[in-house]
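Entry:
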Amino acid sequence: MNDLYDLDVYSWAMKQADALRRRSANEVDWDNVAEEIEGVGKCQAAELHSRYVVLLAHLLKWMLQPDLRGRSWEASIRIQRLELARHLAENPGLKPRRDETFGGAYQSARLVASGEMDIALEALSETNPFTLAETMDDGFWPERKAPL
C-alpha cells in the first residue's frame, strides 16, 4: 500500500476510505492515514493564519492610507472577519491557538502591507498595533495613528 501512496495519492485515498468504511483494519495503511489526517488539521490552522494575515494587512493599509480607502478594502476587512468567525466556529479546536496564530500573522501582514503600500518595512511597527479583539470587532476601523 505504501507504493500506491507514493505513486498515486488519489487512488490510495479512495482505497483507504473504502477500507475504513468497511472497517477492514488489515487493509488500512495506518501510518500514512494518520499523516494525512494530521495534514487536514494543519491545513485548518494554516487557513486561520492566512486569514489573519489578509485582515491585518488591510487594517494597516486602512490606517496608513486613508486617502486610498475604498469599498474593496472595506469588503476585504468585513469578509475576513466573517470568514474567521465562521472558520473558528467550524473548528473550535483552533480557539486555544488564536492568540499565538494572530501574533505570528502580524509579521507576514507587515510584509504584505509594506509591499502593497510601497513603503519601507521599517516604517511599520515591529509590534502589532491592533489587539485581537479590535481586529475582530465589526465596529473597529482604525484611524491614522502616530507613525508606526
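The longest helix spans residues 30-64.
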